[in-house]
Amino acid sequence: MGKEGAETQTLFVSAEGEPYVLRMTGVGGKEPGSLEFSAFNEPVTVTPPSASEVMDLDKLKR
Predict the structure, then answer these.
(1) Reported pTM
(2) Distance (Å, whole) CA 34 – CA 38
(3) Contact 2, 25 (CB under 8 A)
(4) Deepest in the core among 18, 23, 41, 53, taking most CB within 10 A?
(5) What residues contact residue 47 under an 8 Å CB cut-off, 6+ apart?
């Protein structure tokens, strides 16, 4: 658990087997919310975006 100003962040980790992160929560602050993780060790299929959906960050800096 961590606290910064009015915001508290908590990280939940499995107590048995592999130490997987199960949930992250944020209370207070500008952007409170939570994330839940599942499907550990499951294959993931990633499809890259098309060229028209990619932004060149160096061009944005100019």
Answers:
(1) 0.57
(2) 14
(3) no
(4) 23
(5) none
